Amino acid sequence: MTFFDVEEGVRLFYEEKGQGRPIIFIHGVWMSSRFFTKQLPYFSQNYRTILLDLRSHGKSNEVHYGNTVSVYAKDLHAFISKRKLKDVILVGWSMGAFVVWDYLKQFGGGNVHSTVIVDELASDFKWPDFEIGAFDMGTLIAFMTEIQTNRTPFLQTFLSSMFKNELSGEDADWMLEEVTRMPESIASSILFDQSIVDYRDFLPKINVPTLLCFGRQEKVIPVAAGEHLHEHIPNSQLVIFEDSCHCPFLEESDLFNQTVEDFIQKGIGETEG
Q1: What domains sit in the chain, N to C, each tagged with a CATH number?
Q2: I need a labelling partner for 112 at 20 to 30 A (CA). Which of 132, 146, 184, 237 fits?
Q3: In this structure, how many other beta carbons lie within 10 angstroms of the beta carbon of residue 17?
Q4: Are 117 and 210 in contact (CB under 8 A)?
């Protein structure tokens, strides 16, 4: 296994394959790089493809501090900078989108070729002026309680809600294993932080090409979230995956991979042209 030391006591697991322009896949809350298993063989044919486990997630070590989106973005920046990666493509799914946006907010887009945002809102919280938010305070409190007292059954239901069709036994088993790796204390901490971050004011300042990938099935995130992002992020493109819910990269992997590839190649062509 390959690890990157962000700082003393913080080790991030990553998997890397291929050569060329770096493309980094960033997972959602409680998830891991394993969810991008259908992207590594495809993109590594033409890109330096990196699957990264965020702090305390997946095979990265458990750290009982720094479990916030802003720190995850700092970890990402350290990973990119210390490994001297240039002109990177950032793919952020769910909470991973927040990490991408916070990276751009803190460090700018000078070293970012483009971003791909997969099924996320500008904020998960249902603010008074943001009715499409996923969580109100009551829901967030209920989720925090479930994580502390009833995690496995809760996450089994949560995982099922991420897909249009019922999960197979094998997929359900490995996904549950991934999302229960971290202690409940860390799971609660990052759930709270990622649920209340708000990037609505930052969206118009994003200055890199952005592909927005959303599932048509609205069990987790509404299509309206993608439309809202498309309206407010300059130079963005919205693609709806008709047979997907929260995970088009797994549910329609071939179409997702080709869509992202076409987006990247178009950007490269325009840059070179």
Answers
A1: 2-272 (3.40.50.1820)
A2: 132
A3: 14
A4: yes
